[in-house]
Amino acid sequence: MTPPRTPYVGRFAPSPTGPLHIGSLVAAMASYLDAKARHGRWLVRVEDLDRDRNVAGVDQHILASLLRCGMQWDGEVTWQTRRTALYEAALERLGDAIYPCACSRKEIQDSQLRQGQGGGSALVYPGTCRGGLAPGKAARALRLRTPLEPHCVICFEDRWHGRVCQDLTAEVGDYVVRRADGFWAYQLAVVVDDGAQGVTDIVRGADLLDSTPRQIYLQRLLGLPLPAYLHVPVVVNADGEKLSKQTGAQAFDDGAPAASLLRSALLPAARFLGLDPRADSIDEFWRQAVPAWARMLAARGAMRGAARDETPAAPPNAAPDAAPGAAP
Predict the structure, then answer these.
(1) 164-182: per-residue pLDDT in tens?
(2) 15 is in an annotated binding site
(3) Record's Gene Ontology CC terms (predicted)?
């Protein structure tokens, strides 16, 4: 007998560092469409742990913009800053897999250069503090151990990109779960929140694709269910940079009438995602966009399936559901 399918729970998790721009609208729209196409729940969580970057009142602006676009969330909105007890409990469960680290970013870069790694933007932690702090050094951050032998290879099936694999040992190393400034790291907080809220499907921008293996590793160590993932393309500016507040992205919602939002924001965001609704109102837009999203994903899945049939098998240590093993 086939077990009943777990009810779909999706989420959108903006940071209140600035109003929503067209790039963040694309991510919100994709997650909302996926939840509605699967007759599921759509949650909103404000990721406000980085208090130094939060802008007062922006969280309410974001919520108002979602409502003006016709995106009503289910249940109550949650704020990460009200959930710190959950992160402390997760840290306790991780136990000896966590250790204090005294290294600064510059020290890690210098270590890369000494090891001939070029000191690139991807900082692979060399394990300097793994065996304990050097004399005179004070702990700055807390890191999570990743297995050394055999390497920890995490694979998963992304609903947009197909099979994705990452060697955490070689490409990431031990990574931070509490930062030097005392704030909880994104990787830990998002895993704990998704688990606590019962999120079954995560739809977000492809800029976070690289973070997913780290989150899967944490999910397994904490005994949490593994969500399904879908990473949509990100909007970039004329220089090819991800559209963000730091790259000059402007808010899409300036209080203009709803009809203006439809033309200036919703329709362009839908076209970016590969949809082409021809609507004259926001309500009609969603009536067209939800089934169009389901059809598009079905077509993409069929194309990936055909391509997979022609692709050689992955190495045996890269099984999509292989547990990474306990941290040494």
Answers:
(1) 999 999 999 999 999 999 9
(2) yes
(3) cytosol
